[in-house]
Amino acid sequence: MNYAKYIILRDLTGREIVAMFDGSIPHSDMVPGGMTPVSAGFVMISGDQVIIPEIGSDSLGLNPLPGDKPRLAAFINLPFSTPARKSIPEFSNSVFAGRAERPCVKTPS
């Protein structure tokens, strides 16, 4: 299963946006000036399921929030289904170590 990283960012006006990017890039490298990270984590897509392990960002010191799953599902145009986060014990930081994938960044339209 492939994975990516994501951050929910808030701009100076309070608007929040989703940034999803390659799993090999540190979360902290993807925070632009003038934006505040609100939550961060890893995301995997399996069919039409959005899976967010309860693993946050070490570089930002943030974790996923319950509202992240529906936001990410909407961001990539997938239907949302509960639970908001899925606890997957077999996924740990060691699963993600050393993984490199092609960069993929999508910005909202």
Description:
The chain is of the alpha+beta class. Helix content is about 10%, strand content about 25%. The protein has one domain. It has helices at about 70-75, 95; strands at about 5-10, 15-20, 35-45, 50. β3 (about 35-45) and β4 form a beta hairpin. The protein is globular. It starts with a strand and ends in a 13-residue tail after the last helix. Residues about 80-109 have low confidence and may be disordered.
What's the quick description here?
By secondary structure, the chain is an alpha+beta fold. It contains two helices and four strands; from the N terminus they run ββββαα.
Ends distance:
27 Å
Which regions contain 5 or more consecutive residues with pLDDT less than 50?
A: 82-109
Computed Rg:
13 Å
Helix content: 10-25%
| Spatial sequence of strands, sheet with the most strands | 2-1-3-4
Total number of beta strands: 4
Q: How much strand?
A: 25-35%
Shape: globular
Structural class: alpha+beta
| Largest β sheet strand count, sense and barrel closure | 4 strands, antiparallel
What would the average pLDDT be, to the nearest integer?
77
| Tally of DSSP helical segments | 2
Task: Give the ordered list of helices and strands.
Answer: EEEEHH
Number of domains: 1
